[in-house]
Write a structure and sequence with these properties.
alpha+beta; three-stranded antiparallel beta sheet; two-stranded antiparallel sheet; 5 strands
Amino acid sequence: MKHGKRPTLKQRERISKLKYKGRNLNPENWLVVKDTSEEFVLVNKNSGHQEKYSK
């Protein structure tokens, strides 16, 4: 698995609007693995769980 990087301000704003299991994500708990025009891939700092979101 790739290592994530700390999200930028714009990425943190986007992460806080995303939903996982009906709840908003906390940007402090997620790292950005991939941010392309098609998808946004995040990995959780604590559990290592990876989530993919299409744009």
